[in-house]
Amino acid sequence: MRYLVSLVCLLSMLVVLSCTESSDYDPDFNVGDSFADSQLRVIQIDTLSLETSTMQFDSLITSTSNRILIGSYNDPEFGTITCASFFEVLPENFSINSEAVYDSIVMYMKYDSYYYNDTLQLNEIHIKKITEQLKPKKDAFYNTSNIAYSNEDIGMLAYYPRPMEGDTISIKMDNVLGATIFDKIQTKNITNTDEFKAFLKGITLRPGGESGSIIGFSTDETLCFIRLFYSTAGETGSTQDYIDLKINKGSEHPTFFNQITAKDANQYLEKLTDQEESMPSTTSENKTFIQAGTGITTQIKFPTIKSLYNIEGTGTILEATLIINPSIDTYNDYLSLKDTLNLYLTDRNNVLSSQLTYADGTAVKAVLNKNNLEFNEIYYTVPIGAYVEFLLTNETETDQAIALLPTDYTSSVDRMILNGPESGNNAIKLQLIYTVYDREN
Amino acid sequence: MTAKTKNSILLFILIITKVTAQSESLTSSPYSLYGLGVINQTSIGKVNAMGYSGIAMKSVGYINNLNPASYALILQNNFLYDLGGKAEINTYANKFNIEKNTSFNFSNLAFAFPITEKMGAGVTLIPYSHVGYSLVGLETNIEGSTETVKTNAQGTGALNDLSFNFGYSPFSKFRIGLNAAVLFGNIEEEESFSLNTSSFLLNEQTSYSGIQLGIGTQFDITDDISLGGILKLPSTLNGSLSRSIYKTLDYNSTTVEENIEGNADDFELPLHFGVGFSATLFDKNLLFNADYQKRYWGKTGQNDHIGEYTDQNIYALGLEYANKSRNTKYFQRIAYRAGFNFDDGYLSVNNNKINSYSITAGLGLPLSARNSSALNISYSYGQKGQINNILIQENYHLITINLSLQDFWFVKRLVK
Question: pLDDT of A412-436, one tens digit each?
């Protein structure tokens, strides 16, 4: 019996023990800095060497853009930049009352708020007829494509651009052309788009002088069109009516593109004739160049990234931030710096392979930091930890480079000049944070 | 072996598995950051109330785990159990803040039995050490910059001591004992920090195991005065590490390593010796113990964080008053105990030894008039570390409860 008692005693103690619990386990104790040291080493490194270079793509596809670029300006480094746009216009229908009388023809375009350089300069838009078929040799038109056009203006406007106002500009066009189109439709001489295209292959919108600005207009067909006004006499007076010739960007093949050219650029940019030949910053006054529209890009390589493995112990990279300084005095309020740049990868032949993205698919962007404007501390920062980790773990040497391009680089002309790696305090650099968690290799 | 013995052993194994599974992470002390954690001081039975003294103490009717030689004193047909738990309230403070924590814990499980008239043996399971800390804001310089990063460190875990004891009395007044302790357990430590766009977490689980052998002797100078000595040999606990590392890089959580086997430093247990004096006075009503123990940590050459291991000296004094005359009144059969313990510490941080002392008191509440089964309750107040430097001072109130049972087996009752 007594043994039983002790067994029961033991069992009950066991039950009690099993039920015990600690108080809320939250003894977060701030011990100050010398009670214990961390077994982790955290190291910041910004001395890894970088190579930067400038490269120009042979051509950029510009027929997929949603922006009409027109204008011309003189850039002290990049030369005279000229944008002209080519596109088809097609009547929305082919019926005009036989009693109607031609009135006028006007082109309407709406600013899409893009501009580059000083908009206080007088700009000119000249509308001209295209004289060859608006069809690309391959699948697309490029910034370098050209289509023959007649020199004669069929419309012209001199204006002071107000791109941020959201206005629509109107350009009075040649009445001889307007009346001809009117007649051909009214007399059923033109009854479908093919017949119309045979008459008017398309138009090109071109700047006048070379000292204006580059302005963007929408390619939305409700915002860019030519309106043919006419009137019909009735018993109570005449009624106004119109037919719209809307922009047509093409369905089987593109029938729209922007032509973007530069001439008389500085001596270094003039050397960029072959896409496969990158120009190291060491041969261009330790500077590199970026220009959207003409396809000039800055490439960055990290040839000694694996020297991180020389740090004693086993570790892992925690942050890698690229700090990119635009060259002082190469930008101003007119020749402004884009707020963000996208990062792409180029292969050994300098062909664009992919865009750098975060794990969730959003684009990796270099963001312009303007916190200390008065000290000229303007620089881009971009976290590229995942890419640096890829370089570190990649077993074979890569010929890849990062290429910096402004967002919308096929439909804008933003440009900038960046410091290379030998520019002292304002040099481009990679700032790494690395932690060693095992002191043995 | 009778069915009853089998049952008891089965029960014991059951309890061991239960207790070892449960005894993790139920303690809290910043000092458990170091080494294998805070080394457990509490023992079995009445010694918890007597300043943890009793190397020379002659134990009849209860288990004295401080010296394996005492197992030779277990009387024939006796079967001894001891089951203990403890509750601890810790307050720790440095110059900047104060924190309080309460923890409950299993403190021991033991049984002992005689083999022959001159031989006894026993098995005990007691915690060897506990790890339970959570420290925030450990500042680390970012090398190559003027900035710092604040890391947080957390640790949980425990090591257990499963001891096999054997005592033998080759001739009267002299006893010798052997002890083999199997030490085993896991310690999980975590360190983490965050930067602007990234974070890092290191998790290390270390399993330790090893065996430490010891001997003990007791010698009775007179019936009332005894001397004792113990010696534990240096030993190595083998550590095996499993490491996992997680980080966020560019806002994306990734696994750097997961459960990678690594090399953990083995942990060296030092040579340990102890001597004790025990005397009974006033018709054996008063028991007095005095112990001195030394552990040669310095020779192990170990260090941890900013601490270095140094030789440890422990002094213990204990008193018990128990009326041995055949009193029938329960109140007069209660034993009263008190003790003092000073430990100059095995860790030196910036040349400050982290010493500790504790004052103990307790009662032995008899459970039966016929045997020495008792409920032993002890309270101790202790202090560790100093506040006037970078160290942390820890105050603790510790209550232990031991159910010490004496059973008579194979004895037929004369009166039915």
Answer: 999 999 999 988 888 999 999 999 9
Q: What is the largest CA-CA distance in chain A?
A: 127
d(CA A100, CA A186): 8
Parse chain B into domains and list their residue ranges. 3-408
Per DSSP, the residues of B268-335 read EEPPEEEEEEEEEETTTTEEEEEEEEEE-GGGGT-EETTEEE--EEEEEEEEEE---S----GGGG-E
Q: How far does the CA of residue B282 sit from the closest CA of chain A (Å)?
A: 33
Write the pLDDT tens digit of every residue in B285-340: 899 999 999 999 888 877 776 678 889 999 999 999 988 766 667 788 888 999 99
- Minimal C-alpha gap between A417 and chain B (Å): 27
* Predicted-complex ipTM score: 0.75
Rounded Cα distance, B193 and B142, in Å: 12
From the CB of residue A238, how many other CB atoms can be counted at a distance below 10 Å?
A: 14
Whether B149 sits inside 8 A of A42 (CB atoms) is yes
Q: In the structure encoding, which two tokens stand for residue A117, read together?
A: 């350089």
For an interface test with A, the pick among B138, B241, B253, B348 (most A C-beta atoms closer than 10 Å) comes out as: B138
Judge contact between B198 and B248, C-beta under 8 A.
yes
Nearest to B247 among A31, A42, A318 (CB): A318
pTM for this entry: 0.77
Residue range A90-110, pLDDT digits in tens = 999 898 988 899 999 999 999
H or E segment to which residue A163 belongs = none
CATH topology for B3-408? Porin (2.40.160)
Q: What is the pLDDT of residues A296-327, one digit of tens each?
A: 999 999 988 888 888 888 889 999 999 999 99
Distance from CA of A283 to the nearest CA of B (A): 31
